[in-house]
Specification:
Blueprint (H helix, E strand, L loop, with lengths): L5 H22 L8 H12 L15 H7 L25 H17 L11 H15 L4 H30 L4 H13 L14 H16 L6 H15 L6 H22 L1 H30 L5 H8 L2 E2 L2 H4 L7 H17 L3 E2 L2 E2 L3 H22 L8 H27 E2 L23 H15 L5 H23 L13
Antiparallel strand pairs: 1-4, 2-3
Helix pairs in contact: 1-6, 1-7, 2-5, 3-4, 5-6, 6-7, 6-8, 7-17, 7-18, 8-9, 8-10, 9-11, 10-11, 10-16, 14-15, 15-17, 16-17
Amino acid sequence: MPMLNNRKIILLLSGLAALHVFIYSAAFPFFGVVDEQMHFDLAARYAQAQPPRTLAKTSEAALPYIVYFSCSEFLYAPASQPGGKFAPPPWTIAPEAAAERLAPRAQFWRDTAQNHEASQPPLYYALAGSWWRLGGLLGLPDGWRLYSLRFLNILIIGALVWLGAGVAQKIFPENRFIQLAVPALIACLPQTIFYAINNDVLSPLIFGTAFLLLINFWERETITNRHAAATGLALAAAFLTKLSNLPLLAVAGIFLAWKIIPLAKTNGWKKTGTALGIFTACAALPIAAWLFWCKTNFGDFTGSALKIQFLGWTNKPFAEWFQHPIFTASGFWFFVKGNLATFWQGEMLWHREPLALPALNIFYTLVTGVLLAVLLLVLGRRPAAFSPPQRTALWFGLACLTAMFTFLALLSVKYDFHDCFYPSREKPFFISGRLMLGMLVPFLILVAAALDQLLGKFNLRVKFAVLATLLVFMLGAEFAANWPVFSNAYNWFHL
């Protein structure tokens, strides 16, 4: 039987990714524990061209949806409810009874709740807001319109599959296994953040595009104005998607400087200067505009000060940073395991417990550690197993990984979290793998390259058999972990 070509396989993988995200986006009720209400509120505000200028209370456009469609099973167990079971969805009971039951919740959201995500960069919310307006123009019923915002992630994950394939093809043009392993891993990734309304989902696509442009840039002997503009805009877009992408931008800046200085010495600063000026303008002007907006409206250049104040965090004296448990063996393991586990699986809670099998946390951590160790050994081997451009791309990916872990470690030691639920004084660690999702494409390049090296003595058929086994395991384990949500009466299947 003739073998399918790469394009057809990637098309199938993008379809699998779309189906994967659709099923779980529909299975989870609203609203997820990773501030999904807040992200929805911002999307509704941007749909009306009314971005917040402070930590405002919930908008009147979003409030009815938050009150009516919220499910309590994320944070409460059945035993905590009257009669040991949750109240039925409002749309299944008489309107008068539903209104009476929901009145206290509406009062809380109207008078008490503040959107502490208000200063988040605007790119995702502008996109989601436009999608929300489209749902209104199409006359979608309220429940379907709300779920349509999650279903926007279907388009994002489909594009991400193609991007991952393109990056792998660029770096490893001769290696079919890596070319298909990267999009396959994206398609089967059990990361629950892709099943919710949030701005993290856009980071892999945006920085992955920047990563591809930077790799292209590294191989060029001259810089064209068009390529300089595209690279600058992609890096600006990464900043305007999520502030946690800043460490990736720092790595990208070092990467660019490393290339530009020798290039300018060869071609002359005057010849390189025009493209460099275009790149700087395209990257710096959008970022500067947002920094000015935050300073004007939120009081500081990142807009973080009000959020930190709202959460009750305070800065610790520098001398106390080194008393943090991350500097112990057990604390470091907890930090690394927590971030790798949530990077692969997400942070969803169900009945206030992590919606992930504990053994999987160990599995993903150990597998990742082994593969990265293999890759480091291969990179240090002589003769080199990779070509110079491939080595550059892999070291770039490793630098992104290191920068993200360093950033989360810095946030962990920098603050006293007081009475905050997460992070807390008892567990003062940032273990939110979703904050590292901007590096997803370069990270999976590392994983696929390491797996290819680990299976180097085997033929292609065996390699794909091992990959298929891993993918089936990932999908099966995710289904087992998330099985409880499918019967929930508040989800899309029961509207």
